[in-house]
TrEMBL record, chain A:
Transmembrane segments: none annotated. It comes from the Bacteria. One of its GO terms (molecular function) is flavin adenine dinucleotide binding. One of its GO terms (biological process) is anaerobic respiration. NCBIfam families: sdhA_frdA_Gneg. Coiled coil: none annotated. It is a peripheral membrane protein. Residues 440-566 form the Fumarate reductase/succinate dehydrogenase flavoprotein-like C-terminal domain. This is succinate dehydrogenase. The keyword Electron transport applies. The active site is at R277. The keyword Flavoprotein applies. It catalyses: a quinone + succinate = fumarate + a quinol.
Automatic annotation (TrEMBL), chain B:
It is an enzyme of class 1 (oxidoreductase). Pathway: Carbohydrate metabolism; tricarboxylic acid cycle; fumarate from succinate (bacterial route): step 1/1. It comes from the Bacteria. Belongs to the succinate dehydrogenase/fumarate reductase iron-sulfur protein family. Residues 20-94 form the 2Fe-2S ferredoxin-type domain. This is Succinate dehydrogenase iron-sulfur subunit. GO terms for biological process: respiratory electron transport chain; tricarboxylic acid cycle. SUPFAM superfamilies: 2Fe-2S ferredoxin-like (SSF54292), alpha-helical ferredoxin (SSF46548). GO terms for molecular function: 2 iron, 2 sulfur cluster binding; 4 iron, 4 sulfur cluster binding; electron transfer activity; metal ion binding; succinate dehydrogenase (quinone) activity. Its EC number is 1.3.5.1. Keywords: 2Fe-2S, 4Fe-4S, Iron, Iron-sulfur, Metal-binding, Oxidoreductase.
TrEMBL record, chain C:
Keywords: Oxidoreductase. The keyword Ligase does not apply. Residues 3-82, 148-238 form the Cysteine-rich domain. This is Succinate dehydrogenase. InterPro entries: Cys_rich_dom, HdrB/HdrD_reductase. It holds the Pfam family CCG. One of its GO terms (molecular function) is oxidoreductase activity.
Length: 566, 328, 286
């Protein structure tokens, strides 16, 4: 089938793009292909809210303040033209979404309520209780159904097709039947999500956040950007990685090591558990590394102890945290300490693109956590990730719709299908013996140890060589399930392949960047170095799978570089 | 050291490529306390049987992918603790896992939820806003907190389909029934002050297999993983049919009869209930049943029971009705 | 032990045998039941959406009648139980609603205070009376008779309103009662399913399909009787059994007993006294 626009991914970004495109030009043929049903997408997991300088709650808020907070939050690695576009569009996008039925929480006068959020100088974050992402995702899905958007649910992206720098579409696997098919498209929008799951058991992400779009771009010769920037949260649950929010420490929870010590006294004697997030993360990690953690099947961890707060306070002030611990960890914080450790939860890097979501290939656009515009730079501001998918989802839909009407139909050769079929058949070969789950776990451990909260030249290089070795072993990985019907074993192997390619970039970037900026924290280079490192990292992969690193300047604007202090 | 136990998972498996019908496979695994059913199944997939097929995604109870039946009850695998499940089930060391009901099984625990999506489309499960396309994004609509409140619980729905799987009439109608989650969403749309097609939506909702076919069994409410009072939404839609004067349906007439009898007699007149529900023509179908019952001496009294204080009751309830109308 | 006994409309007409047997044994156990003759129809799970306030005031009045006697209210119909419990819950958790209902009730010389509990007969026997005590009263143990318990929806769900202590997914209270009377119980998956009563007139095929499935399962598990604590379930399972079996393509049959009849059996009442002949289905066949 041949389309005007092929959208890969049906989270907030992909669906907003589809909606914008169909509303701009109802005659366009649009296909949305997604490996999970649209409402399963990870957009649903964003709880907190979405920033927009509506100035409903605080009349003194302005778009400029929002831009400044974003640029400062990014540790000055965000491109200021993109950040400005993001923040200028924010109020329009929120109102548009609201007009379409999104259920935002309200102020007494009936306008959209806003609350304070980390890194924001004003009450700017619009929300719907603790289900903001879920309700936005549902609203977009409802509107897509209304407009009759054609979804191809449970199709897995195998390759991005381009010829001489022009988009041709994608090849995807129908998970239900294992059939491989072409989606020829004049334009392609990649809205495939982040890559934080490569940290596997050390990640709060959904199972599918495996960077499929980024990996497809990398293999198509396109560039990824700023891959070393991955955000960590200090208190993820031991088994699931799910976040125990700051609230638990805010109410007076203690962090305790296996000696029974409140170890934060060594790192932040005054603020103790309420020190800045990155410091708490590093402190917990240090305790574990120096052998003061607890042992378990699921790895080493530290205790977040709430017991001294008493049952009444826990029940009345922290009911959601308590439910989270009971459901996912089998631990009731009233009776037991919560097992926690730092966890990866957001990837700032991604497919290199500009404010118009354009990549180096004409007709290929990228949007959302899988893209790097870049508006988050070295560190994402809370409430800006949902905003990003809305603003740039719309922009990508707009750009693709306009371009598609000017281009001739795209064609993908049958040979390309055969290549993909052969690639997949390879996993079933007789000599395939490596276990996917073993490689996956080792990948997670290596990344967390060498390209996680703690980084250094030595660790980075160690990580890189370990990951390259895993990638070698992956060539012998085995798909044990030979069924053609809903073969999730095959899918997990394909996802692992994607994660490994991207992990090479992450480790390479972590080893190379000799400074500390935002989420990237080097023990051997503890301060930001604007002289040498105020630049984006750019990653390419050649046909042999070798990843090369180059750099690109940051687009500046009205805000000069200054030290980031809160 | 951690508490561990040997646990048997009986999983209903089916691969249409090779199996004629579904069968149970048993997996014995040693698991530690604190593990969820989803993690246990994934442990089995990684270490014992890579062919075991299930859906999962967020692993945080918010995406709805991993809804299956655990010991017969539809719920999310990712929020169900293995040890807690053992505590409530009769067996000490066995957990039974099956796919959701009321869907075609594609493989093992994976079901085809497309029919559910088709129902969302049929009943227009979206807001058609008053704001014109050209004006989108220009101005916020005012939604007062008290207008937001009725739609708030419904927006917790994650489309996990647990209620769809548990629904009595969905099963009884071979899945022709609208199903609970679609009614929940219809209610949410119709209560939304920004929506413009409430009446149009309601007209489809009262058709055959629509809101009047719900049998009030509360299985949807009981199984909802987000504790949404789904029955309130179903009753809310029915209430709306009366508010809009759409009373020309068997379900509406049936319900009205209860209110009328309570108000006028104090008790229900079961003798005329079929006639009032089904109309003269429809009630003819009930005659053989009436004869069968009559032979057993089981007939509702021709003259219904009336309580002696019925006049006072009538006066009181009519006053309630009048006052409610005034405050509307 | 003394209770205000709420009269269910159906027990006055289609299932008279339920109350008939109950009133033959309640005094044997020393359970005094004061009939609420002035009680009104609970609304049958219908009035609440036709007119929520009428439903609220109407059932508040039913409870207030029991409160006036200083007694807890007992019913032997699941739907009446839920209808009245629901209103009680609404009023008890919202002072404004309490004020509203009392505004009307005062004119009738009544007041809703919230002092009377609302219970099902099954709960009274299991908890207030106690199964050990009941066991001691058994004259004709139901030895060798196999019962399939059919609980019905409105005594189990929504579980936050129900005080019977049953797990709605695996109820035991009725089975425990039957076992105390010396009977055997069979395990079958349909015991907590719906009988389809409330859609018998508007969606009969659907109702027959769900009731049929439960009936067939009880037959296959070799039960001699189905026992139910709800007269509406009884109607569906007994009076419409032929239709439901036909929907399943079966011509088996299984008699369905009221809870009150099963207790009566064990307390030595005759088939005639229990009104077993009034049932549409009187014989068991496979």
């Amino acid at each position: 089938m041949s389309y005007d626009i092929v959208i890969v991914g049906a989270g907030g970004g992909g669906m907003y793009a589809a909606l914008e495109a169909v509303r701009r030009n109802p005659a366009l043929k649009i296909a949305v292909i997604t490996k999970v049903y649209p409402t399963r997408s990870h957009t649903s997991a964003a709880q907190g809210g979405v920033n927009a300088a509506l100035a409903n709650t605080d009349k003194s808020d302005t778009v400029d303040l929002h831009i400044f907070d974003t640029v400062k939050g990014s540790d000055y690695l965000a491109d200021q033209d993109s950040a400005a576009y993001l923040c200028e569009q924010a109020p329009i996008l929120i109102r548009e979404l609201e007009n379409l039925g999104a259920p935002f929480s309200r102020l007494a006068d009936g306008s959209i309520a806003q609350r304070p959020f980390g890194g924001a100088s004003k009450y700017r974050c619009c929300y719907c209780a603790d289900k903001t992402g879920l309700t936005i995702l549902q609203t977009l899905y409802e509107q897509c159904l209304r407009y009759g958007i054609q979804f191809f649910n449970e199709y897995f992206l195998l390759s991005l097709e381009q010829e001489d720098g022009v988009a041709k579409g994608v090849i995807a696997l129908d998970i239900r039947t294992s059939k491989i098919r072409k989606f020829e498209g004049k334009t392609v929008i990649l809205a495939t999500g982040g890559y934080g799951k490569m940290y596997w058991h050390r990640s709060s992400n959904a199972a599918g956040l495996t960077g499929d779009g980024g990996a497809a771009c990398l293999r198509a010769g396109m560039a990824l950007k700023d891959m070393e920037f991955v955000q960590f949260h200090p208190t993820g649950l031991r088994k699931s990685g799910l976040l125990v929010t700051e609230g638990a420490r805010g109410e007076g929870g203690y962090l305790i090591n296996n000696k029974g010590e409140r170890f934060m006294s060594r790192y932040a004697p005054e603020k103790m558990e309420l020190g800045p997030r990155d410091l708490v993360s590093r402190s917990v990690e240090t305790e574990i590394r120096e052998g003061r953690g607890f042992d378990s099947t699921a790895g080493q961890y530290i205790h977040l102890d709430l017991r001294h707060l008493g049952a009444d306070l826990i029940k009345s002030r922290l009911p959601q945290i308590r439910e989270l611990c009971i459901q996912f960890e089998g631990v009731d914080p009233i009776n037991e300490p919560i097992p926690i450790r730092p966890t990866a939860h957001y990837s700032m890097g991604g497919i290199d693109c500009n404010t118009a979501c354009e990549t180096s290939v004409k007709g290929v656009y990228a949007v959302g956590e899988g893209a790097c515009v870049s508006v988050h730079g070295a560190n994402r501001l809370g409430g800006n990730s949902l905003l990003e998918i809305l603003v740039f989802g719309k922009r990508a839909g707009m750009e693709a719709a306009d371009l598609a009407s000017k281009l001739p139909a795209a064609k993908i050769s049958d040979q390309r299908l055969k290549d993909q079929e052969e690639h997949i058949a390879g996993f079933y070969g007789k000599n395939q013996a490596e276990r996917y789950d073993v490689i996956r776990t080792e990948l997670g451990t290596s990344l967390a140890d060498n390209a996680g909260i703690y980084r250094s030249k030595e660790l980075g290089e160690k990580g890189l060589s370990e990951i390259l070795a895993l990638r070698e072993r992956f060539k012998k990985v085995k798909v044990a399930d030979h069924s053609k019907t809903f073969n999730t074993n095959l899918m997990q192997v394909l996802e692992l392949g994607n994660m490994l390619d991207l992990a090479v970039c992450v480790a390479k970037g972590a080893a190379a960047r000799e400074e500390s900026r935002g989420s990237h924290s080097r023990i051997d280079f503890p301060v930001r170095d604007d002289q040498n490192w105020h630049k984006h990292s750019i990653f390419h992969m050649n046909a042999e799978g070798e990843v090369s690193l180059s750099f690109k300047p940051v687009t500046m604007g009205k805000f000069e570089l200054q030290e980031r202090k809160y | 050291m951690e508490d561990k136990r040997e646990i048997t998972f009986n999983v209903l498996c089916f691969n249409p490529e090779v199996d004629e019908k579904a069968y149970f496979k048993s997996y014995d695994v040693v698991l530690e306390k604190g593990i969820t059913v989803l993690r246990a199944l994934n442990y089995i997939k990684d270490h014992v049987d890579p062919s075991l097929t299930l859906r999962f995604f967020c692993q945080a109870g918010i995406c709805g992918s991993c809804a299956i039946r655990i010991n017969g009850v539809s719920k999310l695998a990712c929020t169900t603790q293995v040890w807690e499940e053992l505590e409530v089930s009769k067996s000490k060391d066995t957990i039974t896992v099956e796919p959701l009901r009321n869907f075609e099984v594609m493989r093992d625990l994976v079901v085809n939820i497309d029919p559910m999506v088709e129902k969302l489309k049929k009943y227009k499960s979206w807001v058609i806003p008053a704001t014109k396309d050209a004006d989108l994004g220009k101005k916020e609509c005012t939604v007062m907190p008290e207008e937001f409140e009725p739609i708030n619980p419904a927006t917790d729905c994650i489309l996990c389909a647990a209620c769809y799987s548990e629904c009595t009439i969905n099963e009884g109608s071979n899945q022709q029934f609208i199903s609970p989650l679609v009614m929940l969403r219809a209610y949410r749309m119709n209560k939304d002050t920004r929506d413009t097609v409430g009446e149009e939506r309601l007209k489809v909702l009262v058709e055959d297999h629509g809101i009047w076919d719900c049998t009030h069994c509360y299985r949807c409410v009981q199984s909802c993983v987000k504790n949404i009072p789904i029955m309130d939404a179903i009753q809310g839609l029915r209430e709306e049919t009366f508010a809009r004067g759409m009373t020309n349906s068997e379900g509406a007439r049936h319900a009205l009869a209860f209110k009328d009898d309570t108000m006028k007699l104090g008790r229900l007149n079961e003798f005329t209930l079929p006639l009032r529900t089904l109309g003269m023509f429809g009630a003819v179908g009930q005659i053989p049943f009436a004869i069968k019952m009559g032979l057993k001496g089981r007939v509702p009294p021709l003259l219904p029971h009336k309580i002696s204080t019925r006049k006072q009751v009538q006066t009181m309830l009519e006053e309630v009705e009048r006052d409610s109308k005034k405050s509307h | 032990m003394k209770y205000a006994y709420y009269i269910s409309c159906i027990n006055e007409s289609m299932t008279k045998e339920l109350d008939q047997s109950l009133f033959l044994w309640n005094s044997q156990l020393g359970i005094e039941l004061v009939r609420l003759d002035e009680g009104t129809c609970c609304g049958g799970s219908n009035t609440d959406f036709v007119h929520p306030n009428v439903n609220l005031v109407n059932n508040a009045r039913n409870i207030a009648l029991a409160e006036k006697l200083g007694l807890d209210l007992v019913t032997s119909c699941n739907t009446c139980l839920l209808g009245i419990l629901h209103v009680k819950h609404e009023i008890d958790s919202d002072p404004k609603k309490k004020e509203l209902v009392n505004h009307y009730l005062k004119k009738q010389g009544l007041e809703y205070k919230g002092t009377s509990a609302v219970k099902h007969l099954l709960w009274v026997l299991n908890e207030d009376y106690g199964l050990d005590k009941l066991k001691a009263k058994v004259k004709k143990p139901l030895t060798g008779i196999k019962f399939a318990s059919f609980y019905g929806c409105h005594i189990l769900r929504p579980s936050h309103l129900m005080k019977g202590g049953d797990n709605p997914n695996a109820p035991r209270s009725l089975d425990m009662l039957v076992e105390a009377l010396g009977g055997e119980t069979v395990e079958y998956a349909s015991n907590n399913k719906c009988c389809g009563f409330h859609t018998l007139l508007v969606a009969p095929e659907e109702s027959f399909n769900v009731a049929g499935k439960a009936l067939v399962e009880a037959v296959e598990k070799d039960a001699d009787y189905i026992v139910t604590p709800c007269p509406l379930c009884h109607m569906s399972l007994d009076a419409y059994q032929g239709d439901s079996m036909a929907a399943m393509g079966k011509d088996a049959s299984i008699p369905v007993l009221h809870l009150s009849q099963v207790v009566g059996m064990a307390l030595g009442l005759s088939e005639k006294e229990l009104g077993l002949g009034k049932h549409v289905v009187t014989t068991r066949s496979a």
